[in-house]
Design goal:
With 98 residues, the protein is α+β, with helices and mostly antiparallel strands. It has one helix at residues 2-36, and strands spanning 44-50, 60-65, 70-76. The chain has a 3-stranded antiparallel β-sheet, covered by helices on one side. It comes from Candidatus Pantoea soli. Residues 1-21 form the signal peptide. Residues 85-98 have a biased composition (Polar residues). This is DUF1161 domain-containing protein.
Length: 98
């Protein structure tokens, strides 16, 4: 019984670390999808921003993480900065941007 309580305690302490890692893994998955759609890695950036700063980030929200407290924002680099991210780049939880 004491081992079970200790395991739960250790798990509770590591959750914040796992939550941050999940944002990085979501960003990596979205990046792979964008690259597989023919966009060069140097032609875009994905930024993780707090929910309340997503509108000010100057890009399109393509994902979210940390229980929807963080947004992943796509920005096109270079000449074609006004073009949109491919529809298949976001996660299945993300709807089209409005």
């Amino acid at each position: 019984m004491k081992k079970r309580i200790a395991a739960l305690f250790i798990t509770a302490l590591t959750l914040p670390v796992l939550a941050q890692a999940s944002c990085e893994s979501v960003r990596a998955d979205i990046s792979k999808k964008i690259i597989s759609n023919g966009v060069a890695e140097s032609d875009f950036s994905l930024d993780i921003v707090p929910n309340d700063q997503a509108d000010q980030a100057g890009g399109q929200v393509v994902g979210h993480c940390e229980n929807d407290s963080q947004k992943i924002v796509y920005k096109k680099n270079g000449r074609d900065a006004d073009s949109n991210v491919p529809d298949s780049a976001g996660s299945s939880q993300d709807g089209p941007a409005q």
